[in-house]
Amino acid sequence: MRLLLVEDNQELSRWLCAALQQSGYAVDCAADGMVADGLLAYCKYDVVVLDRGLPRMEGLTVLQRLRARGDRVPVLVLSARGEIADRVSGIDKGADDYLVKPFAIEELEARLRGLVRRAHGMESPVLRLGPLSMDSVGRAFQLDGRLLSFTPREHAVLEALMLRAGKPISKQVLYEKIFDYDAQANTEAVEIYVSRVRKKLDHPDLHIVTLRGLGYLLELRRNGV
């Protein structure tokens, strides 16, 4: 799950980045509105945390430009301004949620999980595909009720495949889900992580298919085939 964090307070940004990475997000950081606007125009994200008060370009301007490009990525706005009029203004300009500083990291992460679920049409925090289940709150996978152990990047691979179960996802898109903007890796590294997930997901009812030219697809086997 790839996230853009836009926050000009360096101490807060470092703290949030570390906490979100610990929770399994691949995090890109921007410290001003111009940089954020460029990243949002160039990269695809699953969710954005956007501070309202930014240098060079105000947060709500970044948001308006994002929506004007037709990008519907979920955006949570952070602000020290908590008046009703400020919240209404943020929502009216395209924010999906609005969180007032100071806040607890647990609340921020819960709101992000909710935004991602809604973006993928998930009514429940637990997504199921046959014997496989994904708990978006506990950030855990279970296979036939048995807890599976994944590294953060393996988790990101299976999460991306699970959210698009039955539909192909390209190698490039998978790369963007598991590596941040500054990662020293190439798309071939995706094959390594997919292979590792396949080995851990060894089950007669599940199959990760490699589709030449299209990428990968997670599906239920038909009659064990």
Structure at a glance:
The chain is of the alpha/beta class and 225 residues long. 40% of the residues lie in helices and 22% in strands.
Describe this entry's structure for a reader.
With 225 residues, this protein is of the alpha/beta class. It has two domains: 118 residues, Rossmann fold; 95 residues, Orthogonal Bundle (Arc Repressor Mutant, subunit A). The protein is 40% helix and 22% strand. The chain has a five-stranded parallel sheet, with helices on both faces. A four-stranded antiparallel sheet has the order 6-7-8-9, covered by helices on one side. The chain has a two-stranded antiparallel sheet with strand order 10-11. α6 packs across α8. The mean pLDDT is 91.
Total tally of structural domains: 2
Helical residue percent band:
40-55%
**What is the fold named in CATH at topology level of the largest domain?**
Rossmann fold
Determine the mean pLDDT: 91
Topology:
Layout (H helix, E strand, L loop, with lengths): L1 E5 L3 H13 L3 E5 L2 H10 L4 E5 L7 H10 L6 E5 L4 H9 L4 E4 L4 H15 L6 E4 L2 E4 L4 E4 L2 E2 L4 H12 L7 H8 L9 H13 L5 E6 L3 E6 L5
Parallel strand pairs: 1-2, 1-3, 3-4, 4-5
Antiparallel strand pairs: 6-7, 7-8, 8-9, 10-11
Helix pairs in contact: 2-3, 6-8, 7-8
